[in-house]
Amino acid sequence: MPTLHMLCGLPGSGKSVLAKELEAAGEGILFNADSWVCLLYPDDAEAAARDERKFLVHDVQWELVERLLAGGVSVILDWGLWSREERDGYRQRARELGADVRTVFLDEPIETLHERIADRNRNLPPGTFNISAAELDAWAEVFEPPTPDELEGH
Q1: Residue 43 carries which DSSP code?
Q2: Which residue from 98, 123, 99 is spatially nearest to 6, judged by alpha carbons?
Q3: pTM
Q4: Cα distance between residue 129 and residue 144, in whole Å
Q5: What are the tens digits of pLDDT across the range 68-127?
Q6: What CATH number corresponds to the domain at position 139?
Q7: Is 79 in contact with 60 (CB distance < 8 Å)?
Q8: By the 8 A CB rule, do 29 and 74 touch?
Q9: I need a surface site. Which of 43, 75, 92, 119 has the fewest CB within 10 A?
């Protein structure tokens, strides 16, 4: 049975590190929207356009995810998945396709996230964007952490 690994957390929480580890261990094919946005729009890092494009990339990636899950291939979503509604929708659709779902919440204190993002901003790895402290704080205000029932069972 294929598995949809949904990695949930704010920037700097360790999602991308874990996603790459899972992929290297053969746990599934990795989908990261930021890396695709950087490839498609390498000269444009404006936050508003970047966010709009990320949602478009999610739509395209999700079409591929559905095809892979339906074909028995596991997938790793490195998207953040900040809202319960969003997670529920992907969880339901994956289960309809016969997949198991594993939600992994990477939770770090906001101070740790600020330190990690500041370090990353100094030498941006490929496929990432500069994130300001103000952006991170604003995102932390709207982020909906998964509830225990989302993390229990599959």
Answers
A1: T
A2: 99
A3: 0.88
A4: 22
A5: 999 999 999 999 899 999 999 999 999 999 999 999 999 999 999 999 999 988 987 777
A6: 3.40.50.300
A7: no
A8: yes
A9: 43
